[in-house]
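Final report, results section. Input specification for complex C-07:
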Amino acid sequence: MKMHKYILPGLLAVAMIVPVSCNKAFLKEELTTSRNTDYFKTNEGLDQLVVGLYSYLRYYHCSEAGYSFLNYGTDEYSVGADNSNGMWNDYNASLTPTGGVVNSNTVNAGSFWDYMYTGINTANTMIARIEDGTYTGANANVNAGVAYFIRGLHYYNLLTQFGGVPIKTEPSTSVSFEFERASKAEVFDLIESDFTAAFNKLPDTASKIGEITKSAAAHFLAKAYLWRASEQNDDWNNSTKAADLDKVITNAEYVIARHKLADNFVDLWDYTKPDGPNELLPEVVLAAQFTGPTTATWNVGGALYFYTCSQYRDLPGMFRDVPGGREYNRLRTTTYSIYQYDLVNDSRVWKTFRTKMTMNNVKGAASLGYTAGKDLGLMYLFNQPGDDRFEGVRHNDAMKNNINELDHNSKVGTTFVFFPKGTVREDAPMDKVANNDGRKYFPMNTKYVDGSRESIADSHCFRDGIIARSVEDYFFKAEAQLRKGDYAGATATLNVVRDRAAWKAGEDREEHRDGGQSWDGTTGAQAPGVSSYCNRSSYYESNNLALGSLNAQASSLHLNGPINVVANLPAEDQWIVKKLGVSGDKDVALCFLLNEKSREMSLELVRWVDLARTKTLVSRVKAFNEDAAGNIQDRHLLRPIPQQFLNVLQKDGRALTADEKQAMQNPGY
Amino acid sequence: MKSNFSLSRKALMAFTAVVALILAGPAAFAQGLSKGKVLDSKGEAIVGASVYVPGTTTGVVTDVDGNFELRVAPGTTLEVSCIGYITKRVNAAANMTVTLEDDSLLLEEAVAVGYGTMKKSDVTGAMVSVGSEELTERPTNNVFEALQGRAAGVDIRSNDRPGEVGAVYIRGQRSLTASSTPLYVVDGIPMMSGSIENLNPQDIESIEVLKDASATAIYGSRGANGVVLVTTKKGTKGEMHISYAGSFTYETIKDKCTWMTAGEYIDWRRTAYYNLDPKNYPSPSAPTQDNDYKIFNGGGDPYAWRNIMKGWAGGTWNGNNVETTDWMGLILKPSITHEHTISASGGSDKFQAYMSLGYLSNEGTIHGQDYQRFTAKSSNDFQPYKWLSLGASINATYSIQNYGLSGTGNFQGGSQSSAYGVATQGYPYAVPFDDEGNRIEFPGGDDRVKNVYGEWDLQKDLRKTFRAVGSFYTQLNFGEMWAPLKGLSFRVNFGPDFRFFDQGVYVSKKSFNRAGSNYALNNKRMDISWTLDELLYYNREFGKHSVGVTLLHSADSYDRRTMNMDAENLPIEEALWNNMGSVSALRSYGTGLTQKQMESYMARINYSYDNRYMITASVRRDGASQLAEGHKWATFPSVALGWRIDQEPWMQSAQWINQLKLRAGWGITGNAAVDPYSTKGAIVSLFYPYGSNVTEGYTLYDAMHSNRDARNLAMANESLTWEKTMQYNVGVDFNFFNGRIAGVIDGYKSYTSDLLMNQSLPAILGYTRTLSNIGKTENIGVDITLNLVPVRTQDWEWTIDINAAWTKNKITELTSGEDDLNNNWFIGYSIGSVYGYQSAGIWQTSQQAEMDKFNANGNHFEAGMAHPVDQNGDYKIDANYDRVILGCTMPRWTFGFNTSLSYKNWTLDVQLYGRFKFLSGSDAPWVGGRYNVRKYDYWTETNTGAKYTKPIFSEAGADQYYQTVDNWMDRSYLKIRNISLGYNFPKAMLRNTGVSAARIYVQARNLGSIFNGSEVRDMDTGNTYYNRGFTFGVNVTF
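Structure output:
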């Protein structure tokens, strides 16, 4: 009885105190669920950092910034129904250092700027760890080569968009706020040295699909030298120009020798499945890699498909499906884009743009008297001015007379005619109709179409995004040649490209193939096999020719005289030369080359820089991009320096004054 | 407070009665019979008062009506006593009435002060206490709603969505990016895995809010945002009580906006098109059918077009003939909320228990939103020996929330997170169903405007939470073991906190937020945290000296595990998110682990001399795992003084002063609300395919990553440390004329340094931000609580409780030495400052020459568009030169007003709540014309005096400054929170029913505003709409 009076409290006291004593390790924080920056001090970590560097290649094809900075606001494309990033096309009052925010999809100058610099810091980390000997593994050269390539590419993008930018080549471990813009020449020197280092360290041939090789470095060296030799830099490139043009040719030829062109232009876009044959063609020098469902979960897919997708779901007998795509409606094909082609003899226009879609809404089509899977829901007619067959642009089943497809025993729900009766080319009535009709109907570019997507709503596409293909090296070479005055040489170089673009004998000129064919036949369909994908073009309807009448013949686009002479140019180019008021050998030849490049590389994310560096942006936009024509000015050859960057900068430990910020800004912003 | 006391007083009285009966019973023997009644000063019967013959065991206890019978000789001295009243001696008589006066000193409740309790009169810090009666006076969904408007300096925002809680600020905001959430402590256990939204308000005995640093510093690193101490109910000694409280609430949504009719919308959209391109579109005064076909996408939806054509019946336009669809009406429903709590309480000398079961069901006023909560509370306290006490208290909650439209799984861009928002966009001229009664997916044919009807079946977001919070203690009282150790005790508290959260989302392919495929998501999260406190107390009085010492060693641990997966194209719709294995590959999946620990030491001394002079001093030392090595530990001291002037001898003559106390305090508190691993330099894991060979890699930062955390990565800061706040507080507590005028006034000033902020970085560093300790802020404020009783008579009582707080803060220093424009931080200005364009109204046609000057510089202005002020007069609106600081979004004043008028058993209460002097953004509706907006006064060539700019049709923004109009205005408001009428059944009526107390009441909720700074938004919820309703409730005790 008396015992417990002491024993119990004693035991309790001990029991209460003992378990509580803490040890030193209690407050130690351990991050076990993910790696930290220390990992990049190991061979294993740096070998994995290379994979991270590769991932930066995907930015252009999966972000709004890709097309906004590289393709918007040119002669090729204008704004569709979705204006999320319209300021980058329209050069309107929203195009400011802060950027007018339309919605959460809007990208401002800082989006592009920040992304480039984060890649640069990653590349700097790799380069520093290899140079200071931290890395002792077997891949020192390849890893450094990739890092130099990415850093060079990112500085090249910054230079071509913003002009001279601050340079940082060391990895960041602590904060700093004082940066000055380097000159264009200084940034260029870094790019040249980075691509050269990359060339020296990278392998000649890829040991795995998508690997960056010497050819990719050579391609970008050529591109960079050509940039410096262009009109935009005429105030400082005098002493380097001649040598640069020679280097352009040397590097372009290096690539051309190793990457032969595909036999047929359509082979490049003949996508049947992820990582299929079209993505492995030797013409592809470097492509951002996307693959089937497994990776889709780890990064956004190539959304460029949607950005260029035009409206079809609201048309009679149609609904949105997998091969049709999601109508993000950002990039509207301009009339210029279509009518710069020889619509009869140039196969590329029919292989690039979608002119027919099959009716796919089974119930809806039936209620209107159509047959889904057989009748067409939509057709674009690329007819010629003076064609008196049609009244009005839009031929809607419900409103106007129906237009039937030639000899396929199919009816057509809705037809858009580019040149109705009584219009001339200058009218570009389709551009006007697009303005009035919600901008949503236009023939879409199909270079990125992906029917292998997992669902109608899925925003992940599995097609690779081409960063460099060797056909562009022909353009580099031809441009260097014409800038050196070798017009015959330039013509010969471009003829290689044009010869491929012509129809081959026996080729079905009505056949259209794009990534829509990779659809599995059921996903998202109302009935098996019924989708909006149509493997025909409106070639014969548009050209008002009998079906199949030209299939047996080859066509020719071969130029027989040098391109500095207007009379030697195809009619379309002559019209453009006249419209732009271009004269003089070099400018006429360059005008032709830029047209030819658009015909070949429409929507391949090279147009804005090409036009800006050649200082043809303003005149071409004024002539062919109706939305931007009234706004564009010379200052738009450079983008505004992002305000959010200027805001945090310091000088002597204090923030910049408004005047100092303005001084650091590009002129006119 | 008085209400708080009343419950324990009843219990004590009952207990006393029982004990007295036991003691007195056998000793009673026949003498003359004295009959009597014991009343309080208001004439109410006192139950359980003891009536004794002093020095003997002769005595009885009064019954429920205050009656007693005692056999004593007439004229014998009787001592009548009861806890809470001044003991009185009277002479026995045959028939007598004894009135006992309140003992104001004893009336005082003990209040929780953190690691212990104190008599309220001894408290030296600034605090406010809210008792259970006030918390449960009106039915509320959670404790926060109950607390709103009850405590000066505690600002609580409202959230109408069932199961959601609003934000809480104590004495305003002082931190820029670290959390401003106060620390919640439930029965001594700091909450780490959530706040107190899970508690049933009926289970709460009292809430004490510690406001100033001298009071919160004992919670050291977590005290900077204030501390909310919650004491839940415990068992009381005495007879068993069973109580039931229930209420039914009927609510509907009220919208402060009027919405356009179909005819008005058509007119507005025509105007928008006309303003876009007057050449192609006719003036809205001369519409044509052809143009309407284009403007209203006639081919897109034949049913909508047919409705528009009704306006054209007869060939000329008459907008009144177009039928208007009330899209909001389709999603709204009246809601019934009912809650029930049944509780039991009782105990003996050695064991007391309390338990309750509660159920709340809120049906929600929008289809698809509802909330159910089951609560259970059990509390057991044991005192097996005088030297030992043990106890356990467990609060368990299981809640089921149908969140409604959440935007999860959204693929549309421009996510819609509220069904109401979706409904407001619906075209009033479009119809929801086709002729066969099928739902039209895109009424009006715009692929961004989906039919909201049935959305609640197409999108489920079911959130289930189970939470159990325990508080266990063992206390050894050494003084009871060995007399010299009197006052010394040792206590161990252990508080486990378990929270399990399961979210299942299923979005049908027809939902607003999807296009073509279904989607399912399952998130699970488990938080397990615990706190272990060892406490050594020494409390002893030596004559007039009273000393209290508290020593603490404490350890906290927090562990969160997450698991998530989502998928698309699920083959079995009915399986919802419950069969993710049915798809070949998940869209994403992951697991996560977050851990943090804290260790603390604390010492506190309370000393008081003669109940007149009090001093409290404490020091706490905290170490937190999430801070950088070498910066983990910090010390938080405090000291506070109190002077009870009313106890001074020279004040004794001032009878009207019941209480007058001056307080002054100083302390330092911290805020370590930094996410764990912030100092670690996390890197990003990703995958890149070489062809189809998917390879794992890492990078430093990836703004394009599909994982949000990777996109938001900040540069690691290896020297991250505590954010510290030093605060001075002076206060006065007063009570004059027996509580007729009482109140508390506190003034404070605080200085916060080493502010944790997301500092913007130049992207050249590879990161755009880093978390760092930069900058300082200052807060100054006054909290005022006033309790007035203008009328108090036998039958009538009128009370007025006012609590008001004024606060002002400013940023005094940023490390960069300069304003941070990217974050809107300006030195010398408040947190929450607004930096933007001032409005000069709307451009008028007469100002064309002026507009031309701007247009020449790259602006685009037309008559009818917004006219921002050109601050530097350079005829160019630009971000560098034309933006100015417009004001602040944090309210300067918060105000609660409660008044109660009672007559006999009837009570009428009115509660008002308001915030004053704060800016809130533009009420200008979207002027792009694509979506429906509220009816508003827009500029046209004939209505040039309009309040808002002209609409210009645009998918995006044609007038980028339209929001400068009616922007950042003072949106002060004073809202009538509720009016209620209650009736307490008189005890006489309840006799023989087995019911000891009963109350019924009716209430009207959110009747409206006395004034509101916005014409179209309820500034409490921030939305255009709010819930309004009526409640019927009943409280019964058996």
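Chain A has a mean pLDDT of 90. Chain A is about 40% helix and 5% strand. This concludes the modelling results for the funded period.
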